[in-house]
Amino acid sequence: MKKFIAYTCCVLTLISCQTNETSVDESATIKKIYDNALTTDLAYNQLERLCKEAPGRLIGTPNSFIAVELMKEYLEGMGFDNVFLQEFSSPAWICHSASASINLEGEEIPLKIDALGPSGSTPKQGISAEIIEVFSLDELRELGKEKVEGKIVFYNRPMSATHYNVFQAYGEAVDQRYWGPSAARDLGAVGSITRSLTYNLDDFPHTGSCRLEGEKIPAIAVSTNDADKLSKALKANPHLKVNIKVDAEDIVTDTYNLIADLKGSEKPDKYIVVGGHIDAWHNTEGAQDDGIGCLQSTEVLRLFKENGIRPKRTIRAIMYMDEELYQSGGNSYLAYSKENNIKNYFAMESDAGGYTPRGFTIDASEKVIAKMLEYKHYLEPYGIHYMIAGGGGVDIGPLKELGVPLCGFRADWQRYYDIHHCANDTFEQVNMREMQLGSAAMASLIYLIDKYDLAN
Ligand SMILES: [Zn+2]
Questions:
Q1: Which is the CATH superfamily of the domain at 5-81+263-452?
Q2: At what angle do helices 42-53 and 432-452 cross, to 10 degrees?
Q3: In this structure, which topology does domain 93-248 adopt according to CATH?
Q4: Ligand 1 mean position to 136 CA, how many Å?
Q5: Residue 323 Cα to ligand 1 middle (Å)
Q6: CA–CA dist 179, 181 (Å, integer)
Q7: How much is the pTM?
Q8: How much distance in Å is there from the Cα of 42 to the middle of ligand 1?
Q9: What is the pLDDT of residues 414-430, one digit of tens each?
């Protein structure tokens, strides 16, 4: 879950509509979908395998290939009409190790850190330099080259706790991680440290992407507890030095999006896409981000098939590679669609956590949004309380260029940054009922859209 700004801008634009234009009562079919989802643990068990057998599955890593293979086998066993790999080539970044320490009264104290992607590497002995603490990029620029050159910049502004919308708080703080390393480098800094983006005071470093084109410096995130420790130590000794070691490499790799189709009966050449991303940061099992989105998407196909629902259009589940680093999977599916003249009718994404379902955000014309709202009352008994204008998601985002209506599944978000991009994002944090309520909500909405169409 990376791009959130468009979403947060629109999140308060609540639109409500109670009319029902479906010609028959669909409540019984929706209940059937939910009943099946809530009593089937196949996807939940497969999520466990994905998390435990292929953690840290960042693009180009051995585990990314194991993850694709694991999911491919699983989907082939489901008896869908078509399961295949959509191959493409992309830059990738492999992190071998990262560590940092400060020297306090003669003792070397390790810090809980992790490398941001794609951090630069250091010599084996690491780099050591004085630290300069700032709370914004503007503050750094005001200090200027004279005060920054040769130092390691430490961005230490916490996420604001006062926003109800946690994605808004993240959006306001993430510039330190995303743009911070290059801003520091441009002023002659030799490294960059960012406070982890989470509300919790804990020992998990939360990684993520940064934009580092051209010359690269080491860029790391530090846990919130150690960010506070570092800040305090700096007050006691403004000349405190930190040592950072990063061993990472940039490569180019062949890789895949994994695709499964359930063929449509009337318009098989029109596709309803539903997806999540199969990659996960090097420090995590990637359960909520975004193994769960992959499994919920494949559940949509299974729930159609098991309930004997034959879609009019082909339902296509896509497990995108590389949402986290360069977003090459989403862009490559757009290129694939153009090359092969694929008609994507609608696209849905689940990449905002798999907690209790709350609603959907829609990036489409007002007419399409109004049409989708006609289906909302069927989902309200299951806790879907909003369908509002907002972003679809990073992986389906490129399809906007082709005019495809986009839709993002939204779960309750208050705990999302407890686990985001850190070792705390484990299978054990996933609740099967919450996950399957999401699968059923996604399948039900797709069922209604396919059956009753979208306005054009
Ligand atoms: Zn994600």
A1: Zn peptidases (3.40.630.10)
A2: 120
A3: Glucose Oxidase; domain 1 (3.50.30)
A4: 25
A5: 7
A6: 6
A7: 0.94
A8: 22
A9: 999 999 999 999 999 99
